[in-house]
Design brief:
By secondary structure, this protein is α/β, with parallel strands linked by helices. Helices cover 28% and strands 23% of the residues. Helix 4 links the parallel strand 4 and strand 5. It is globular, with a radius of gyration of 18 Å.
Length: 256
């Protein structure tokens, strides 16, 4: 019997009809961030998706990667943590998707897997201490489309949800530092904190304006922020929650 590991986030529909996180309100094909990503992917790659490669970086338990593969893309999910990767392996065994592959590796090693037509980077950038260096590397490996779903910093915080530093500078970018682990964090702690950074004790949250400018400077000359994941009440979400949560979806598209 293939025992299901513990899933903490991704409720994935398997081929036998079972789901990986039955207590979740929706499955991944109805997840708001996936639906937003699907819209952009369909705009940039409207046909012949089997011709294109997409990478899901820090793919956690594999939910987004599965849905990209179901769309037809040749999909690579990269995940480093043991507990998360066991979930990816379980999913791979329980879906018939020859165009889906998972590797256990550090996302900093993405260059070893070649170029991708699209890169999906969700919930990862704000766990890194060198975001400029990482995005520079992504730009070299991305032929056309970058989907960046991330927390960011702002100059003012009316109701801080997060324990962030004062406004600072890092890699010539403005932002705030966030502590991921205490200095004496053990390897066991780093493995079991499944939604945290893996190596660095502190991460750097770049300002929203800095992210948008950096994406453009790295060669993605169509740059915009995508808001449809806030639907159906986009106006209310922007007025009430957006600036407190400080998280958005940023799209970069290279000229063909």
């Amino acid at each position: 019997m293939d025992t299901r590991p513990e899933f903490t986030a991704h409720n994935i529909r398997l081929d036998n009809g079972e789901v990986t996180k039955p207590d979740a309100p929706v499955t991944m094909e109805r997840d708001e961030w996936f639906l937003s990503a699907r819209r952009v992917l369909n705009l940039v790659f409207p046909t012949n998706k089997e011709r294109y490669r997409i990478a899901d970086l820090g793919c956690l338990e594999g939910g987004y990667a599965v849905e990209f593969a179901r769309m037809g893309f040749n999909t690579l999910g990269i995940e480093i943590r043991d507990l998360n990767f066991r979930c990816c392996e379980y999913v791979k065994r329980n879906v018939d998707l020859p165009n889906l592959e998972f590797v256990q590796d550090d996302v900093w090693n993405i260059a070893g897997y070649g170029e991708f037509d699209a890169v999906f980077c969700c919930g990862l950038l704000y766990h890194l201490d060198k975001p400029r260096k990482f995005l520079e590397q992504l730009a070299r490996q991305t032929r056309r489309l970058l989907i960046l779903q991330t927390h960011f910093s702002i100059e003012w915080m009316r109701n801080p949800r997060f324990h962030l530093s004062q406004m600072s500078a890092n890699e010539s970018l403005k932002g705030r530092w966030y502590m991921e682990f205490p200095e004496d964090a053990s390897p066991e702690m780093r493995q079991t904190r499944r939604w945290a950074s893996f190596q660095n004790n502190y991460s750097f949250w770049v300002t929203r304006e800095g992210l948008i400018g950096l994406i453009y400077d790295l060669g993605f000359h169509t740059v915009f922020e995508q808001f449809d994941s806030l639907a159906p009440n986009i106006t209310g979400e922007l007025e009430e929650n957006y600036w407190d949560f400080m998280r958005g979806t940023f799209i970069g598209i290279k000229d063909p």
